[in-house]
Amino acid sequence: MKTDQNLMLYTRLAGCRLVVLANRFGCDSEFSRELHDRLAEGLEAAIERIQIIMALKRSLLADNDEFAAYQLEGEVESFGRFTINLLDALEVDCDTHEYRINGGDWINALAADCSGLDIACPKLVALTEEELGSLAPIIKDITLTTGIPVIAVRAVQSWR
Q1: Are residues 60 and 1 in contact, defined by beta-carbon separation less than 8 angstroms?
Q2: Alpha helices in the chain (DSSP H)
Q3: Phi then psi dihedrals of residue 126, to 5 deg
Q4: 156 - beta bridge partners?
Q5: pTM value?
Q6: Residue 85 bridge partners (DSSP)
Q7: Mind listing the pLDDT tens digit for each residue in 120-157?
Q8: Long-range pairs for 55-63 at CB < 8 Å and ≥24 separation?
Q9: What pLDDT score was predicted for residue 130?
Q10: Has residue 24 got a pLDDT over 80?
Q11: What residue segments make up the domains of the chain, in order of their start?
Q12: SS (H, E, C) 78-116
């Protein structure tokens, strides 16, 4: 990323964060306020990543530091995978048939009875526009203007 692109992205992220914080005042439920807070925190984390990238670029320009170049490469690569997760994150270990939600304890997904073996692993279901409320168009705008995906899903147990 070029310096001017970083500055433009920084400005867009800061603007989006302000929109989210302003929109939070109109929330009518705790769930909606929590989603707004998580989105604002995610945007703040993205802003911090961009600030680190810009600082490393300045260091590289000033000192031509090889370590700064290495760090910068890693930061840019990491930022390319940056996402904002508003609700649930699901990790599945296919080797052990275990899963965990939001970094919690691992849960065994295997169940056995006289009819056989069953694997009951939750699935992720996207929040509806009604559940997102006034945040739905803001999320779309954030993804379109910054390229950062915003994921709003909930883990739901699926029984086969």
Answers
A1: no
A2: 3-24, 30-63, 66-80, 129-132, 135-146
A3: -70, 140
A4: 123
A5: 0.83
A6: 151
A7: 888 889 999 999 999 999 999 999 999 999 999 998 87
A8: 57/3, 57/6
A9: 92
A10: yes
A11: 3-156
A12: HHHCCCEECCCCEEEECCCCEEEECCCCCEECEEEECCE
Instruction: Name the token pair of 145.
Output: 């203007």
Q: Which helix (H) or strand (E) holds 152?
A: none
**Helix-helix angle 135-146:30-63, to 10 degrees:** 20
Tracing tokens 């005042």 back to the chain, one arrives at: 25
What's the CA gap between 69 and 148, in Å, rounded?
24
pLDDT digits 0-9 by tens, 25-73? 999 899 999 999 999 999 999 999 999 999 888 888 888 778 888 889 9
Q: Are 118 and 160 contacting, i.e. CB atoms less than 8 angstroms apart?
A: yes
- Among residues 7, 6, 42, the alpha carbon closest in space to that of 21 is found at 42
How far apart are the C-alpha atoms of 160 and 125, rounded to whole Å? 16
Q: Which residues of 34-46 are buried (b: 16+ CB within 10 A; e: fewer)?
A: ebbebbbebbeeb
For residues 104 and 23, give the distance between their C-alpha atoms in angstroms, rounded to a whole number. Answer: 30
